[in-house]
């Protein structure tokens, strides 16, 4: 049996969670939607352990989750977004799937603080209506936007250094 490091484990589980998230409504792919939540929280633990072991700052989300009211505790999407940002910050890289998810998250939660100006300009210049793009189901959004995520990856990463949750914290 091969032992994997924090980065490989976090990336593999995070990308699996994101893939399942985008295909949640496809019963041929996702048999158990709770696995998205399970993977998201597992990644949070891996990233926390890596940050702790490497003497880096862990996500503030992990420090403040207990303060949330009970009706806001299904935070799968929030944790996936935070996991993507934390993975980016800790390992200084991302992927098309991770960036596509952040774009979808930002459309669903505009107060997240994720800037989409470059992506929005690319979509509009390609003839897409942003309201129509935001209204796509997860799989449709993935199929359309993931093609733009590669071109937008480096520009967006350079503009951000903290997760949406960390920017909102005092």
What does this structure look like?
By secondary structure, the protein is mainly α. It has one domain (about 5-170). About 65% of the residues lie in helices and about 0% in strands. It is globular.
Structural class: mainly alpha
Strand content: under 5%
| Sheet with most strands | none
Q: Spans with pLDDT under 50 lasting ≥5 residues?
A: 166-170
Radius of gyration: 16 Å
Shape call: globular
Q: Can you tell me the number of structural domains?
A: 1
- The span between the termini is 44 Å
Q: How many beta strands in the DSSP annotation? A: 0
Question: What is the helix tally?
Answer: 9
Mean pLDDT: 82
Oligomer: single chain
Fraction in helix: 55-70%
- The arrangement of helices and strands along the chain is HHHHHHHHH
Keyword list:
single chain, 170 residues, mainly alpha, 9 helices, disordered C terminus
Helix-strand blueprint:
Blueprint: H1 6-22, H2 34-53, H3 60-64, H4 76-91, H5 96-108, H6 117-125, H7 130-134, H8 138-159, H9 164-168
Helix pairs in contact: 1-2, 1-4, 2-4, 4-5, 5-8, 6-8
Brief synopsis:
The chain has nine helices and no strands.
